[in-house]
Amino acid sequence: MHNIDTASGFSTIPASAIESSPADSVAIGIAAPLLQQLSELPADATGSLLFGPDGQSGAVLVEGGRICWAISPRMRRRLTDLLCHQRNPPLDRASVEDVIRTCRHDHKPFGEALVKAGIATEVGLRRALRQHNAESIALLANHGIGLDGARWLPHKNHRYDARFTFSAMELLTTLGALNDVEMAARARDWLKYAVAGNGIGIAFSRSSDGRSLVPVGEIAGERLPLEELEELSEWTRTTLQVCSCLSDNPVIASTWNGGLSSIVWQHGELSFAMLFSASGDWARSLGRVQRLLEDADGAVSRGAPPDPPSASGERPRRKTTLRSA
User: Fold this and answer.
1) Residue ranges in 168-322 assigned as alpha helix (H)
2) How much is the pTM?
3) Beta bridge mates, 287
4) In terms of residue numbers, what domain contains 152?
5) Where are the alpha helices (H) located in the chain, listed in sequence order?
6) pLDDT for 218-233, tens place per residue?
7) Domain check: are 83 and 149 in the same one?
8) Is 247 within 8 Å of 214 (Cβ atoms)?
9) Among candidates 216, 218, 209, 198, which has minimal Cα distance to 276?
10) How far apart are CA 183 and CA 174, in angstroms?
11) What pLDDT, on the 0 to 100 scale, is given for residue 222?
12) How far apart are CA 44 and CA 31, in angstroms?
């Protein structure tokens, strides 16, 4: 288990819901094995994974063990689409393509150039790149591409800004969020409210077959290796399945994987798991979760944390069951 430290401020919610994703028909279970393989590359791995002759079937660029750029033949215009829709009204496509074309000609990363030109913000660029990479890897996986069929071309030059590189966990969560962007954004809002201090928070929705949980939002989740994320999702599913027979709104306080304090809870179609190494953070988060579930004014259904209690401190309540496992 990685150490739990300060939660990342980056969101894994897709950058644009305006245009349909080329990967919207790819089940996350198809992409997960390839992302798992990528996550197992050495921490200092720097190079290109080429699929097919000279990368004609696709490629994944890696620096320092993190994913910088993924290419699928079906994604040639997708990044421009995502960048254009970072603003409303959308940006002029020709302006975006001109900067990208110039950077490719000069063999320079285009991220900094786009930000410098005022075409994209740092946050907007990161979201667009993250979604582009997630969709590209999903499409590669959908064609049966795995690392066994790839050629590794190492290189020593570091061309990509670390701010615009991604973990396999981030890309997997973005793919999960594509199924329902609004629900994913709502789930992350709840996590931002509920997770105190240096905790990790993961929000899940049910897979299309209902047999497993799919990550759709996270706070500091990239510190959780993918194999442990899979274990956590199954543990969360089975625990909530048992406890939901006893209460409509169960909150389960327990320990997980070597003594980390945990909280799992459910609301509607969403399930949540939070992990803490500090008991104080765990206690504060437990109170916040109970407050979310006890808010009878409907703040949860509106997709926002509840308003602070009134001056009297009183609020209508509904029954929430707390269990220890």
Assistant:
1) 168-177, 181-194, 226-243, 279-294
2) 0.81
3) none
4) 28-169
5) 28-39, 78-84, 93-105, 110-116, 122-142, 168-177, 181-194, 226-243, 279-294
6) 999 888 889 899 999 9
7) yes
8) no
9) 198
10) 12
11) 85
12) 23
